[in-house]
Design a protein that fits this description.
The chain is of the alpha/beta class. It is built from nine helices and eight strands. 46% of the residues lie in helices and 15% in strands.
Length: 220
């Protein structure tokens, strides 16, 4: 099996989904108070990160912590209510997909690749976006529920950066990675791009663009 692995934010999506969904919270009919509570939690985290007050916290660690804190916005909601939130979310962000990447998905599927959407974001949303984009498999972050109600503060197994490589190896132990391809936008996904025979940089950040140009990788 040969894989075509797609990152989510900045690659398939042209936006950073977490802050966008937070900004859309009240427009989806949810209480403003909860929105501002989460703005406060994530805002403090980001400021401390930028000022170096969180020790040697990496960008990926900061993103993981932000997602964990964002999950508190669902406190008290049951599984059906969380699903309703993600249904509404898809309606808002489906038009934010990168049309060039969507076209690429169709192309590689026709060439016999098994397509994978790989991200640290919630698999509840990823699975809905993947269905619209025609992607075969989703590897994302599972939320915790107990007796049908979300456990918003329970730590989630969020895979980002170098963790993504292990996620692929665990999910597809027999895949032919030398004939596989991967699409990503940031330096944090360098290990994933180096894992496959055909790495593709999508709207890359400055650091990844420099590497991609030096190694003559394809850039979208």
């Amino acid at each position: 099996m040969k894989l075509a692995i797609f990152d989510f934010d900045g690659t398939l999506m042209k936006i950073d989904s977490l802050p966008y969904l937070l900004s859309m919270w009240t427009k989806m009919g949810y209480p403003r108070r909860r929105q501002w509570q989460i703005y406060g939690l994530i805002g403090v985290l980001y400021v401390r990160y930028k000022l170096g007050l969180n020790g040697r916290m990496t960008t990926e660690q900061m993103k993981k912590t932000a997602l964990q804190k964002f999950t508190r916005i669902f406190t008290g909601m049951n599984e059906q209510q969380v699903d309703e939130f993600f249904d509404k979310s898809v309606a808002l962000i489906s038009d934010k997909m990168n049309e060039h990447v969507v076209s690429e998905i169709a192309t590689v599927k026709n060439l016999g690749y098994h397509t994978v959407l790989l991200s640290g974001f919630y698999d509840n949303l990823l699975s809905r976006i993947a269905k619209e984009a025609g992607i075969d498999t989703v590897l994302g972050t599972k939320m915790h529920f107990k007796d049908g109600v979300i456990e918003a503060k329970k730590p989630m197994d969020i895979k980002t950066g170098t963790d993504k490589v292990n996620r692929i190896l665990e999910a597809f132990p027999t895949a032919d990675l030398s004939t596989s391809c991967a699409y990503a936008d940031s330096l944090s996904d360098l290990d994933l791009l180096e894992l496959v025979g055909t790495p593709v940089a999508v709207a890359p950040d400055a650091n990844l663009k420099e590497i991609a140009e030096k190694r003559d990788w394809r850039i979208i």
